[in-house]
Amino acid sequence: MIFLEKSSAFTAQFSADLHQRLPIEQSFDCVSTVFDLKQGTGELIFIDGFAKDEVMEKIMEHMMKLDPLAESSVSGWLARQIPYLEVSGTTDLSQAVDAVLSGTLLFLAEGAAEAVLIDARSYPVRSMQEPEDDRVLRGSRDAFVETLIFNTALIRRRIRDPKLIYEYVQVGSRSKTDVVLCYLEDKVDRQLLDKVRKKLNNTEVEGLSLSQESLAECLLPKQWLNPLPRIRFTERPDTASASILEGNLVVLTDNTPSAMILPTHFFDFFQEANDYYFPPLIGTYLKLVRIVIFFLTLFFTPCWYLALRCPGLLPDSLHFILIEETAAIPVLAQLLIIEVMIDGLRLASLNTPSSLSSAFSILGAVILGEYAVSTGWFNGEVILYMAFVALSNYAQPSFELGYSFKFFRMSLLILIALLGPWGLLIGTAAIIVLMLKTDTLSGNYCYPLYPYDGTKLRSLLLRKPADHRHGNSKH
Predict the structure, then answer these.
(1) Cystine design at 283: which of 20, 275, 366, 371 (Cβ 3.0–4.6 Å)?
(2) pLDDT at 243
(3) 208 and 215 in contact (C-beta within 8 Å)?
(4) pLDDT, tens digit, 9 for 90 and up, residues 296-333
(5) 398-406 long-range CB contacts below 8 Å, 24 or more apart?
(6) C-alpha dist (Å) from residue 378 to 366, 392, 428
(7) CA distance 252 to 45
(8) What is the Cα–Cα distance from 333 to 360, expressed in whole angstroms?
(9) Exposed, middle or buried: residue 27 (CB in 10 Å: 0-12, 13-18, 19+)?
């Protein structure tokens, strides 16, 4: 290492400041190791659990054998002497503290003019298995994990373009969470990029305790009573890569496998990876079926309840959908109770051991439903229609959009009970106005329907063949 008499005071003071700033004496995982060099002593400071043991041992062994070199800076010497890729020198105490807490090794040698930062960290990580809520019948089975550097590598593996930029930002005064903006330099919306970058730099929070959700609430305008989702999330690297190639901005947050896709509009939520792993005709069919079924979840039970209240609006051929026998509980109360019961069963299933999940499903769906009808509390038609609604909510992968439609559906039922047919019209108009008034980071929430963009709307509704440029297609 570099041993300079004039730098001895710096080394001693820097080490003392580090021991004061870092909980080396109080926290067992913050480790300081002192060992002998050829001339003087060396100190290695690191967080136990982040450092690679094999790499750390080899570096320490190599440093003990090094001859001193009298230079005023360690930068050039590091590049020649330390056999590791990511090595740098620093005299900034705050930078050194942040680096150690992030998992970087910090090496101090007696008489050195700088501290040495060796990025040999290794974060705990789970396997890259397919995400539970965004599966495909064909296609890749890998997925994002909670380690940021692995997620950036998964995207870089798919987009080998020098214009793919990873812009690094730290958010949170205490957590100092790593956030990365991913975009293609020649295709991204610069106005959106500047807006997101400014919001991240001006965010004043102690930490992102809920990872991507905390970050989304920092980026978006405050609309507490608006249930509509304004950011699309994905755990699939192929979906994130496709969005980047389309000119979108993807935001990756450390400690979460969910990537944020910006900008996001309402019709973007109806896209799914399955549509693009099948031929165009099949992909278009699947997309249209998904859209139709999901909108049925909004209007199916309200329209049926309106038909019960106003049977004169029905033609004679549809009178079979009316209820002949009344139950002990009014139909409106049945619909609302089952809406809540479905969420209760869903929450209970999250805490059910996997070995009992099948038995729990049978218990909830068969026994509760059967006895609710046989005891006269509920009508069989209500159970049937609500079962259709509950299953159809899974036709698209966004839980947030499913819950927003659930709140809209319950509001329509209450308005119909109060105002009859006018309740359905007023409720539908209120939903449309709310969607038009929803703030996003870029453009209107209903784009490309409003403002109208026919080309973009067709691309969202129809699965188009891949665009092969002349001379670049491979056969």
Answers:
(1) 275
(2) 93
(3) yes
(4) 999 999 999 999 998 888 888 888 888 877 778 899 99
(5) 398/229, 398/232, 398/233, 398/269, 399/133, 400/227, 400/228, 400/229, 401/228, 401/229, 401/269, 402/297, 403/227, 404/227, 404/228, 404/229, 405/294, 405/297, 405/298, 406/339
(6) 14, 21, 27
(7) 29
(8) 25
(9) exposed
